[in-house]
User: What shape does this take?
Amino acid sequence: LGVKIHLPVDIEIAAGFSADAPHATVSVDAIETSDLGPDVMGLDIGPVSAENFAQVIRDSKTVFWNGPMGVFEFPAFANGTKVVAQSLTEVDGLSVVGGGDSASAVRALGFSEDAFGHISTGGGASLEFLEGKTLPGLEVLND
Assistant: This one.
């Protein structure tokens, strides 16, 4: 269908799930061979991936974002989410932030809510609505 799928090329890995865990940025091919060892966690997309995604978003006319890029609550792992959120404010069209975590992220990272076309805390329900599924909350309105 001519649709291009964009995947991360680098990732922020950490030795554990904590704000001060030892961490490093590596290519996705080097996750298990990093200096941190093979038992690491991916806690954010890397800076190259973040900028790649941001460029695709800025070039789009409609963007529906559902889910942070990383553990934005930890400053060391918030960059991917911040870069993607910033790019949504630059869309020349409609940008929708969908889901409670995404809504929390844009607020926690200091973005003004009016910088986005719409913010919804119902991420799963929004995705089901886009799929064409009947939503119980809307169905009852038809009765």
